[in-house]
């Protein structure tokens, strides 16, 4: 008889290597939730990042996990529990921990179970947080000309900052992330300058809801939905307004929905960006399996935290190493 699945969780705080600033604020540490699912002596793990933008806190996620813990203890099937949960970081942690557990029980990798191509390596963007033009240019130069840099920009000195960064790293391509911080006029007025600075993608320039204005807008730089894209139900709205979608597992509620979202987005002709909240390599690991489907990868959490987890990813000038199954996603470890 198969043993029941039990759930354990804990909060872990990862100090950041430096202050991380985006359009809606700054942070000095990543507060994450680590979930473990245990069955038959095997342990599946995952990490999620509760995000205030989506009305999530460590406490609200803990409340959801307490509920799931009680449901599992009362004998409710985990698949039924997951099906009833709303997308978000609590569901993400459970879904990804369950995939890790299934891989260990089956003696296979998660990539094999999902029929995904697991990359041997990939290029990930490396992120510049908001600062002065001079400081951002210095930070860009310190990255030593990686292929892809992600630039956080608020609505102040957009062109000046981007021109300074481009001058410091002229052979890189750039993704600009406004985090809902611009107006339509700021987007239109700066699009040509950004294109001239090797910017290939602009993420979520307008606030969610206000991006209705983007329908059939033609700009010299492609637009990517982030805060407006959570699950497949958003795609019909997004397809006429954006050219790409940023898939983050804390928004989709785990790898299961993320894979389905990627497949349907591609069928609609949208490019895929796989992204992350600020967390450790354990949060990046499930998302890494989507890299083979993605035109853009933004999984640089391991270089943003001051100290990563054991068996984490190595990122050298934007080249992200292979997933180590001792961390997550394979049968080579038993935690």
TrEMBL record:
Q: InterPro entries of this UniProt entry?
A: DgoD-like (IPR034593), Dipeptide_epimerase (IPR034603), Enolase-like_C_sf (IPR036849), Enolase-like_N (IPR029017), Enolase_C-like (IPR029065), Mandel_Rmase/mucon_lact_enz_CS (IPR018110), Mandelate_racemase_C (IPR013342), Mandelate_racemase_N_dom (IPR013341)
In this protein, the active site sits at 152 (proton acceptor), 248 (proton acceptor)
Positions of Mg(2+) binding? 177, 203, 226
The record's section on PROSITE patterns has: MR_MLE_2
Q: Which family does it belong to?
A: Belongs to the mandelate racemase/muconate lactonizing enzyme family.
What is this protein identified as?
Dipeptide epimerase
Q: What is its EC number?
A: 5.1.1.-
The enzyme's first-digit EC class, named in words, is isomerase
Name the cofactor(s) required for activity, per the record: Mg(2+)
The GO terms describing molecular function are:
metal ion binding; racemase and epimerase activity, acting on amino acids and derivatives
- NCBIfam families referenced in this protein's UniProt entry, alphabetically: racemase_DgcA (NF042940)
């Amino acid at each position: 008889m198969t043993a029941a699945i039990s759930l354990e969780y804990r909060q872990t705080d990862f100090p950041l290597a430096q202050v991380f600033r985006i359009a809606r604020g700054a942070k000095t540490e990543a507060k994450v939730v680590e979930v473990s699912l245990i069955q038959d002596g095997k342990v599946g793990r995952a990490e999620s990042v509760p995000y205030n933008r989506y009305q999530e806190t460590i406490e609200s996620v803990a409340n959801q996990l307490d509920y799931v813990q009680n449901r599992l203890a009362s004998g409710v099937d985990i698949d039924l529990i997951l099906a009833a949960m709303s997308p978000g970081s609590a569901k993400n942690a459970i879904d990804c921990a369950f995939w890790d557990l299934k891989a260990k029980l089956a003696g296979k990798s998660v990539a094999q179970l999902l029929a995904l191509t697991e990359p041997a390596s990939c290029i990930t963007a490396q992120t510049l947080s908001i600062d002065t033009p001079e400081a951002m240019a210095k930070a860009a130069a310190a990255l030593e000309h990686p292929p892809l840099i992600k630039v956080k920009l608020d609505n102040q000195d957009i062109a000046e900052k981007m021109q300074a960064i481009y001058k410091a790293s002229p052979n890189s391509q750039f993704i600009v992330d406004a985090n809902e911080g611009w107006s339509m006029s700021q987007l239109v007025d700066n699009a040509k300058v950004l294109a001239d600075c090797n910017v290939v993608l602009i993420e979520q320039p307008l606030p969610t809801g206000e991006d209705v204005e983007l329908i059939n807008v033609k700009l010299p730089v492609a637009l990517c939905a982030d805060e407006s894209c959570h699950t497949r139900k958003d795609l019909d709205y997004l397809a006429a307004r954006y050219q790409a979608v940023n898939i983050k597992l804390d928004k989709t509620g785990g790898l299961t929905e993320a894979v389905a979202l990627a497949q349907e987005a591609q069928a609609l002709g949208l490019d895929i960006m796989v992204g992350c909240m600020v967390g450790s390599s354990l949060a990046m690991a499930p998302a890494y399996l989507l890299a083979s489907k993605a035109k853009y990868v933004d999984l640089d959490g391991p270089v943003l935290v001051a100290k990563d987890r054991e068996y984490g990813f190595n990122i050298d000038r934007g080249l992200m190493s292979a997933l180590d199954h001792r961390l997550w996603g394979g049968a080579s470890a038993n935690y």
